[in-house]
Design brief:
This protein has 14 helices and 23 strands. With 482 residues, the protein is an alpha/beta fold. It folds into three domains: 92 residues, Rossmann fold, CATH 3.40.50; 208 residues, Mur-like, catalytic domain (UDP-N-acetylmuramoyl-L-alanine:D-glutamate ligase); 145 residues, Mur ligase, C-terminal domain (Protein-Tyrosine Phosphatase, Chain A, Alpha-Beta Complex), CATH 3.90.190.20. The chain has a seven-stranded mixed sheet with strand order 8-7-9-6-12-13-14, with helices on both faces. Strands 18-19-23-20-21-22 form a six-stranded mixed sheet, with helices on both faces.
Length: 482
């Protein structure tokens, strides 16, 4: 049995009620796929090594059975008709090996999306290094304001719907185009499976050092995505990024440009931001298009809105629906999410982990909460941030905070020896720039330090692409006790 499973669109879908099993189900994308398959009427089960909120809570709400750990017995009673293997799964995984031994048909995550979700829809793909999930949420909100119910899959939980997915109704399906590899048996980027009718390209700079050897190889991957757009399709491209300007040379379709550059077709002026959101005037081809208000903070979110406005214009969505959709879009959980305020101290959670995302998040929060003191807690948890490539870039990014708390690198052995990020060095370099900085071995130790140092009026920002060992909940609880 090979990896194609049910991928061939000429083959029928499995019968409703059939068991489909997901290995690595607690990843944000895999959890969303599980939800869609449940909506479609399948008996969905899954397994994962790490079960933690919010995905574990969502799976429980969906009544999806999840096995903790990977063992062949997870495939018993009844044996699944299809296994979907996430890219967190290694070839030597005992459960994956059992899938192969039993000759259970299997697919990668993006293969499954393509087969179950995209064959009968018009795929609208949001790609780029930064801003994919927030931009996806904006596009979904606009289409809903225009009386559509688009299918969508996002890398987070949209506040608009409370989920990161919906099978929706034809014609549209909005999906994040992730450049990370598909599975151990398919090293192509996920987005190569999505056959886009249109693409929003938000940004492009080097990331995923464990997958791409250099910027050139990353540009090549995005060019392959862009070449998939039909001549009748659209590429909405943010030309603030040199990498994007290089990629769009490969476009076989109409290109709409957007960004802060004066030569962008879609741009804005008169940017105004506070803790309640951002307002700006949008121009298209140097003519006023409209006054926009979004309940999200920061220039980067205004730029994300431009990309969605450009695509919506091409789709024929009326401006009133665009403005309504943007005004109703409160973004995504864990993206500048206000968790609470205790004793005058504000706690915000954010998914930022790339140094550019860290920098822009802190800049946005500072501009919106000025003159309050900005406190950042950072966890270098991704495969790229565990490496030394961004050692200096994180110093500049975190210098936008007044006080910085840094966790030791979790599982440093996942990065090659001699190419590992140093949290102690980051702390010392920040101190060298006059930034008050502290090192903690884990989330619990950082919680103690942060609660000790926090003062009324502070804004505390938690920066991690993972649960950070429950740091935000710990801070809230301890501050209430204090």
């Amino acid at each position: 049995m090979n990896e194609q499973g049910f991928r061939d669109p000429k083959k029928p879908l499995p019968p409703k009620g059939a068991r489909i099993h997901l290995l690595g189900i607690c990843g944000t994308g895999m959890c969303a796929l599980a939800g869609i398959l449940k909506q479609m009427g399948f008996n969905v089960t899954g397994s994962d090594e790490h079960l933690y909120p919010p995905m574990s809570d969502l799976l429980k709400q969906l009544n999806i059975k999840v096995f903790k750990g990977y063992t062949p017995s997870n495939l018993d009673d009844p044996e699944p008709i299809l296994a979907i293997i996430g890219n967190v799964i290694r070839k030597d995984n005992p459960e994956a090996q059992a899938v192969f031994k039993r000759e259970i048909p299997y697919m990668s995550f993006p293969q499954a999306i393509s087969h179950f979700c995209l064959e009968t829809r018009v795929p609208l793909v949001v790609a780029g290094t930064h801003g994919k999930t927030t931009t996806t949420s904006m596009l979904v909100s606009i289409l809903r304001a225009d009386s559509w119910r688009p299918g969508f899959m996002a890398g987070g939980l949209l506040k608009l719907t409370g989920t990161g997915f919906d099978f929706g109704e034809p014609p549209w399906f909005v999906i994040e185009g992730d450049e990370y590899d598909s599975a151990f048996f398919d090293k192509r980027p996920k987005f190569m499976h999505y056959k886009p009718e249109a693409v929003i390209l938000t940004s492009l700079e080097f990331d995923h050092a464990d997958i791409y050897k250099d910027m050139s190889s990353l540009v090549d991957a995005f060019q392959k995505l862009i070449r998939q757009i039909p001549s009748t399709g659209l590429l909405a491209a943010c030309i603030d990024w040199p990498g994007v300007c290089e990629v769009i040379k490969a476009a076989p379709c109409w290109v709409m440009t957007y960004g802060t550059r004066p030569d962008a077709q879609w741009r804005f002026e008169d940017l105004r931001t506070n803790k309640d959101g951002t307002s700006f005037t949008v121009y298209y081809l140097n003519k006023v298009w409209g006054e926009v208000k979004i309940p999200l903070i920061g220039e980067h979110n205004a730029v994300n809105a431009l990309g969605v406005i450009a695509l919506s214009h091409w789709l024929g969505v009326m401006p009133d629906a665009v403005l309504e959709g943007l005004a109703n879009c409160h973004g995504v959980k864990r993206r500048q999410e206000l968790l609470g305020e205790v004793n005058g101290i504000t706690i915000i959670d954010d998914f930022a982990h790339h140094p550019t995302a860290v920098r822009e998040t802190l800049k946005a929060i500072r501009s919106s909460y000025r003159p309050k003191r900005l406190v950042a807690a950072f966890e270098p948890r991704t495969n790229t941030s565990r490496r030394s490539i961004f050692q200096n870039a994180y110093v500049d990014a975190l210098s936008n905070a007044d006080i910085v708390f840094v966790r030791e690198v979790p599982n440093p052995e996942k990065a090659p020896e001699g190419d590992r990020f140093s949290s102690p060095k980051l702390v010392e370099d920040l101190k060298g720039k006059g930034i008050e900085a502290y090192l903690g071995n884990d989330g619990r130790e950082l919680c103690d330090l942060i609660v000790e140092k926090a003062l009324p009026g502070d804004v505390i920002v938690i920066l991690s692409n993972g649960p950070f060992e429950g740091l935000s909940d710990c801070i809230l609880k301890r501050l209430k006790e204090k």
